Amino acid sequence: MKTTPDIIVNIEVLTRYLAGEATPEEAMAVDDWRMASAENTALFAQLSRAWEVAGENNYQQPDLTASWQQFLQQPVMTVPPLRKRTFSLYKIAAAAIFLIAALVAGVLLFRHPVARLPQQVVVHTAHQMDTTVLPDQTTVVLCPQTSISHPPVFNSAAREVTMNGKAFFEVTSQVQHPFRISLGDIILEVIGTTFEVNNTATDSLITVSVVTGAVKLYSKKDTLLVRAAQTGTYNKIRKQFESMEGVNLNALAYATRSFDFNNLTLQEVAGYLESAYQVKIHFQQAATGQCRLSAAFDQQSLTYILDIIAATMGITYTIAGNQVDISGNGCN
């Protein structure tokens, strides 16, 4: 596709020509190349159709007379006559396909540039809890001082996120796309389940409490399978895994709103209610906090729970903003 030692008819020159932005020298070089052979003429026609398909206006033929006059004002250049080249039909077809594809792609990218998606979406909580939904519809309840980062779209074989702090996950089941959480030295992998992860920077342990399903924790040296109603830990200092039976469901109530108070002191109950409802509970009489309660609540409001406690214990309470004051002289 060479016309002169100085002007090479390539995809860039052809694009400028079809857009009406070619210099007079380039326009004449393209016209010379186009008329040099029937093959070139046919190829140019295909490129013109590709340009039209891409949504451009039809190219207006340059005024060659004016172009020539303008060209004469430039420094004289020697343009040797074109050498006719012969190509096999296969080579012509291959070249045409390549040029058309390149031209269409170039036009579309130039005229309609693809908006770059952010590399990571970061959600960070300060002093309040927050709930976020990931691109796969996985729900995450983040405790205060917690952050999670993830791509705007899960488009790889695995759904991968990074998390610091404490959060409760309800992972959407996608068997072909495991869900992985990067927790520093270890990775948590799951297909679909509900669990809490506590990866607080100031704590030497990473704790995973599994409510349903199962998760796998693995480091460079070891792995640990944690099933429903089990708690798994990773010691950051000793770099060791441990597991134990049982999950403290009350500690997860900030996400599940399910409580099972089994002979707990009201002071202990107050701690779980504070975490779940983001309030501060104050006992006017310290002895009231030592009264014990056995009761279960599921998806109930704070006022409903306090009403039941007040009726059971013979106490009273008031709420002002996020402050709860409890007063009473004994335990009934």
From TrEMBL:
Domain Protein FecR C-terminal: 259-325
Keyword Cytoplasm: no
Keywords in alphabetical order: Membrane, Transmembrane, Transmembrane helix
Membrane spanning stretches: 89-110
Domain FecR protein, residue spans: 125-216
InterPro entries noted in UniProt: FecR, FecR_C, Ferrdict_sens_TM
Name of the protein: FecR domain-containing protein
Originating organism: Chitinophaga defluvii
Taxonomic lineage of the native organism: Bacteria, Pseudomonadati, Bacteroidota, Chitinophagia, Chitinophagales
